[in-house]
Amino acid sequence: MAEQRQPRSPTQELISRVLRIVRASPDAATEMLELMFLVSQIEALTTVDREYRDARRVISRLRNPLWDMGPADREHLLKAAETIRKACNLTEKDIPVTPIADLGERERIERHLVAALGKDFDAAQIARVTGAVAAALQH
Asked: How far apart, in whole angstroms, are the C-alpha atoms of residue 62 and residue 74?
């Protein structure tokens, strides 16, 4: 008798699909590994990140990859994005057009910069650095 497999979590399903894409398109490996890192945190972060910012950013990146790919690979990414969207119970309007277009991203960047540079820079300098980082991330 064949052993019955337990159903995969949305994260496991996504990682499986991502690995298939990496095998088929090795040039996309770097971006895919970054996505896998973010995806691996989604389930754990949902208790901390109640707004699903990371999940929304991953969905947006899957829908807008940084590399060229064929229609079949593109379809796998779209399915993965839809799996995450459903697992997090997000609506279409919750998903940012670009991965860093979600509300609160600038504030989150600024909090991290204050923690890292607060002893060396004043508030005005950190605000300028935050603006530069946010602008760079959007382009």
From this structure: 9
Using CB atoms within 10 Å of the CB of residue 69, give its burial: 0 to 12 exposed, 13 to 18 middle, 19+ buried. Answer: middle
Classify burial at 61, counting beta carbons within 10 Å of its beta carbon; exposed 0-12, middle 13-18, buried 19 or more. buried
Residues whose CB is less than 8 angstroms from the CB of residue 23 and which lie 6 or more positions away in sequence, other chains included: none
Helix (H, G, I), strand (E, B) or coil at 71: helix
Chain segment 26-51, per-residue pLDDT in tens: 887 777 777 777 766 665 555 566 66
What confidence tier does 23 reach under pLDDT thresholds 50, 70, 90?
confident
DSSP state of 2: P
Query: For residues 132 and 106, is the Cβ–Cβ distance under 8 A?
Result: no
pLDDT at 90 over 80: yes
Phi, psi dihedral angles at 72 (to 5 degrees) = -65, -45
- Three-state DSSP state, 127: helix
Structure confidence at residue 107 as a pLDDT band (50, 70, 90) = confident
